[in-house]
Amino acid sequence: MIKGSLVPNITFFDIDGDIEKEKTGWHIRWMLEKGVDGLFLTGSYGLGPMMTNEERIEIFKLAKEVASKFSGKILLPHVGCIDTKSTVELAKVADKIGVTGIGAVPPFYYKHSEKLVIQYYKDIIENVNTPVYAYNNPGTSRFTFSFETIQKLQELGLKGLKDTPLNVGFISRVSYDAKVNNKDFQFITGTSIGWLPLYYMGVRATIAGMNNWAPEIITTLIKATFEGNTERAEKAYLVMMDLSTKMHFTESTIASHMGLYARGFNAGFPRKPMFLPPFDDPKYKEIRGWLEQGFTELGLEMETGSDTTVGV
Fold first, then answer.
1. Count: domains in the chain
2. Tens of pLDDT, residues 92-124
3. Which parts of the chain sit beneath pLDDT 50?
4. Are the C-beta atoms of 14 and 45 separated by less than 8 Å?
5. In this structure, what CATH number is given to the domain that contains residue 143?
6. Most buried one in 36, 166, 204, 241, CB count within 10 A?
7. Is residue 260 part of a domain?
């Protein structure tokens, strides 16, 4: 079972849009050192859909190399592409590299029928030996999983679902169906929002974007939850929710870069057409204040870097 908190880690690019491998590797190592349990690679945060297959494979290999220095870290590369051929090619490489699981959003841009989406996952499952996880993100894929769709995919060997929409009726039905009927199937929440109530429902893993820029807070939340320290978990949950709400002023990938810069870490750039606000924008200083307040509330020390790109 995948357990704990994973990060949909961002990919660092230079100003020209080329991957900054050294900075991306530093970021992965930094998050794992802070207690993050694993990586969800080249998903929405990581700008996988903006990358070539060769670039995504480069990130898979880098993550494998960095994670090998730690014990028990989870690797869940996202291989979803707009077409089946490219998706299966990526899945085969991930399978060969050696990962915990393989995740894929349904083929996006075009609106596909359930029948075609099921065939897409069937093709992935049949071409790898690694457990395959679907990714329910209708905002990007134009396809919404139903309970009936999940049942059909379970019959084909799908091992789990990463879910972003937070539809409680859907989540509870899928989760309790797997539990009551002893199915080898895991539900993973695709956001830290809702973590505590979903944990009480039986969910044991989250893919939390905040791990990109404040992994200490998510680690505190997850650790307290699993240890049964309800008071600590609830306090950390409220700090997480407050920060999450404030940081939703822009696209999540951009916010992650800005959060790192606000802490004094050189976070490179997202790939265009995404761009960061000018480094003299007062928003960076505001983010720094939000972070300092959150860390203080939890009694945590906030490590900062020495980069002076932004004036905080």
1. 1
2. 999 999 999 999 999 999 999 999 999 999 999
3. none
4. no
5. 3.20.20.70
6. 36
7. no
